[in-house]
Amino acid sequence: MRLDKFLKISRIIKRRTIANEACDAGKVTVNSKVAKASVNVAIGDIIEVTFGNSVQKVQVTGLSEHVRKDEAAGMYKIIDDVK
Question: How many domains does the chain have?
């Protein structure tokens, strides 16, 4: 699954276009490497997203094309949430 789609479906970022912009700006890393929106995400990958002064680090635990809002948090596990 593409990184931008994962960020949107898992509701880490609300919109796919915003996820694309964050990737283009270098604010998203996958396994400690700056990632483009088109990078394929796999289970076990570590994604780090920078929001202003805070950084959220999550590990991918599941991939699904369609997820209900209450199940979206099950797609990842928060490793580190620095504010």
Answer: 1
